[in-house]
Amino acid sequence: MTDPADLAHDVLLKVAAFVKSLPAAQLADLASGAAKLTLVSKAGAPATASRPLSRPVAEIETMLSEIGTRAAAVQYLNDERLTVAQLRELAKVLGVALPGKSTKSDITTRIVDSVVGRRLDASAIDRLAGR
Fold first, then answer.
1. Maximum CA pair distance of the chain?
2. pTM for the whole thing?
3. Which of 29, 105, 108, 126 could bridge 34 with an S-S bond, Cβ 3.0-4.6 Å?
């Protein structure tokens, strides 16, 4: 059964059975919007559907490689309004290692250091070596 309509029907039946078993107070909270249902995978972690990046990774990488300062690169990433999940995905594609509990700011800094910082550092070393 891979037809999306059939799958949706089965899911709705299961959700209806679950909601029907809730106490009245929880039903009232759901109805008022004070509570919400959350999809949790069998592994126990919430299932999240990350929205796609605002631009293709190659375009973001090209823009970062053309930016002249770390501060401008950070501003560029901030202007893209990427979520933590999107930044993690970007870092993964760019080959930037991240600790497990990185904040949005930490991830942005690591991406900028990896893509922009190394280029700027190499350029500065080349200028010094050319003297």
1. 78
2. 0.55
3. 29
